[in-house]
Amino acid sequence: MNIYIIEDEIFQLEDIKISIENLNHNCIGSNDNPLQALDEIGLLLPDVILVDIHLHKRNAGIHLAKKVSEFYKTPIIFITSEIDDNVITSAIECKPVAYLTKPLKESDLKAALILTENLKAKSNEDISLNTKELFARNGNKLHKIHIDSILYAHTDSKNYCSIVTLDDKKFSVRNSISGLLKILNNKQFIQTHRSYLINWNFIQSFSESDQSIELKNHNFSIPVGRTYKSEIAKRLRII
């Protein structure tokens, strides 16, 4: 997952970054200024945010967490040495995924991140069951995409993939192919390769010689990886 950290103690920050790396996640940014952090979160769109409740000896972390929940709905994990009941009560009102105390234990952080992943997966599943539309950012605008209009998607980089629609529009989203597949309707979409997924409704043909799929009205061959070949064969229902 891509993680953003809001922490004003430099040594604590570096320790958290090391733990995140050890747990095979990515720290995509950090800040100790709430206003700057809010702007960066809007640009980077992390999967989860670690927030120190006490920023510069004030409870600014709680106020920031409320703003994040209001604008971005990003999961929050609080980190703090604070044990005051009133502060804890205020923090709980933000509905954080977890509340971790300093010094931060890597095992506790691991458990909190696993919980976050499970909650995000459940949320994505609920979204896929309840809507046939999603929104993707293009420049400074969010564009509505009807799921039935998606032709295929492919990996652009480690953290991004592109959605290609029937009218040849292309939208870059911060997600992996496997993560995008969870958001979409799995009965309609299938992953053909570690870097590709397709809308099964638009399959035109399957080439056994070069292990690729051609889509209707699209002059481009989608590769089929060895790992995904058996599942595709099941759907082909060869007679």
Structural description of this entry:
It is a single chain. With 239 residues, the chain is an alpha/beta fold. The chain is 36% helix and 31% strand. The protein contains seven helices and 15 strands. The chain has a five-stranded parallel sheet, with helices on both faces. The protein has a five-stranded antiparallel sheet with strand order 10-9-8-12-11. Strand 8 and strand 9 form a beta hairpin. Helix 2 runs parallel beside helix 3. The termini are far apart. The mean pLDDT is 85.
Q: How are the strands of the biggest sheet laid out side by side?
A: 2-1-3-4-5
Low-pLDDT segments: none
Distance between the termini: 42 Å
The helix-and-strand class reads alpha/beta
List the defining traits of the structure above.
single chain; 239 residues; alpha/beta; 5-stranded antiparallel beta sheet; 31% strand
What is the topology?
Layout: E1 2-6, H1 10-22, E2 26-31, H2 34-44, E3 48-52, H3 60-71, E4 76-80, H4 85-92, E5 98-101, H5 106-130, E6 133-138, E7 141-146, E8 150-155, E9 161-165, E10 170-173, H6 177-183, E11 189-193, E12 196-199, E13 203-207, E14 212-215, E15 221-223, H7 226-236
